[in-house]
Amino acid sequence: MENSIDLKERRVLITGASRGIGAGIARVMAACGAHLVINHLRDGNRAQELADELRRIYEVKVLVCEADISIPQDVSGLFRRADEQLGGIDVLVNNAGCETIDHAVDLDLNDWDRIFNVNLRGAFICAQEAGRRMAAQNSGVIINISSIHDKVPRKGLIHYCSAKAGLNMMSKCLALELAPYRVRVVAVSPGAIETEMNREEIEKFGREKFNGWIPGGRVGGVEDVAWICAFLASDKAAYVTATEIYIDGGYKESTIPYDPRPKK
User: Fold this and answer.
1) Residue 1 covered by a domain
2) pTM for this one?
3) What is the pLDDT along the chain (264 residues), one digit of tens a residue?
4) Is-catalytic flag, 251?
5) Which of these is catalytic: 58, 160, 246, 251?
6) How far apart are the C-alpha atoms of 171 and 256, rounded to whole Å?
7) What are the C-alpha distances in Å from 3 to residues 6, 22, 229?
């Protein structure tokens, strides 16, 4: 995997990194020379397989840590392991997330709380732990993985969309507070991204139909997200903070499924 982004000796903690977008980010960060903490929840075998792969190919240090990021004690333990075995962290990628699909009027409040506890509260708990360390070392980057649904509403996902909207504002507030300590905070909002978890669903729905809705002409891949994250983690993005970056092939702006212009 060729690259021109230098993350050598950077210590990167990625939550929810055993599969999907998180695993893609881990692979690209390792390709750029970063040492990693791969967080997972009840997916230890897959996380360990990924860690072994990255150590073998890129000769970087990789820790595998199970933790529920919605539980403060778990998060404290996660960061403590990073301190003890890597000497701290330089980059946090808040990637862990979950969703359910429910009609708003039928939504169980336990599901509302669970989605917020992982997608927003958990991200904040991790950002607090990271922010304290990064402020003390006067450098660092926090990347919060959001979604185009922080701006685009979707039926059945009122709790998920609301949590992601909160994550976006949280990112901006954190960026302002941490800027004096040379800590940058950015939200990255993917659109339709193909992973091993949703590939079958995409095919069942109709890949060509999906591609036709996206101005960029295709469903995105995890590397489309991962390389942006690597860039943001690097010194090449030293002036980028307090903003959100959409990786969606223009999907967020495509609200009319036809072109009314006359054909030439």
Assistant:
1) no
2) 0.95
3) 556 899 999 999 999 999 999 999 999 999 999 999 999 999 999 999 999 999 999 999 999 999 999 999 999 999 999 999 999 999 999 999 999 999 999 999 999 999 999 999 999 999 999 999 999 999 999 999 999 999 999 999 999 999 999 999 999 999 999 999 999 999 999 999 999 888 988 998 889 988 988 999 999 999 999 999 999 999 999 999 999 999 999 999 986 665 566 665
4) no
5) 160
6) 30
7) 8, 19, 13
Look at residue 3 and tell me if it is in a domain.
Answer: no
Residues in the chain: 264
Residue 6 lies in a domain: no
Q: Which tokens hold the place of 162?
A: 């609301």
Number of domains within the chain: 1
Give the DSSP per-residue string, 150-191.
GTS--TT-HHHHHHHHHHHHHHHHHHHHHGGGTEEEEEEEE-
